[in-house]
Amino acid sequence: xxxVVTGLSQNGDVSVLRSALITAGFPTDSLVVVGPDESTxxxxxxxxxxxxxxxEGGTNVPGLSGNAHGREFFRNESLPDRLGDFEIPDxxxxxxxxxxxxxxxxVGYFAHADTIDRVIEIFHEAELLNVRRF
Length: 134
Hints:
By secondary structure, the protein is an alpha+beta fold. It is built from four helices and six strands; from the N terminus they run E-H-E-E-E-H-H-E-H-E. It is globular, with a radius of gyration of 20 Å.
């Protein structure tokens, strides 16, 4: 049975949602926010290459010496895993990652079977976008 409610926040401010959950008697420790800063490029790949130690005649320290122009970066590999924790189907993960790249935050709440309908209502009342149940 689907027990995760997700929605998109325009600016990552979930204070209204948090207050509404508290007022309704729901614990806020089940509320999780994945922000756009978690979809930023990472340097850990792309700096690996045959010229890392030999370019410019010496040792290059990523971030301290040389520059990484022309290198390809990858997106945070844990991001799909984090979104997968919300039980978002693999076929829809890309849509959520795209929303993160556009500056939105993905908000998830792990509900119980007897409270999920009320949690969905609270997400709508807090004006979250694309409220879904997974």
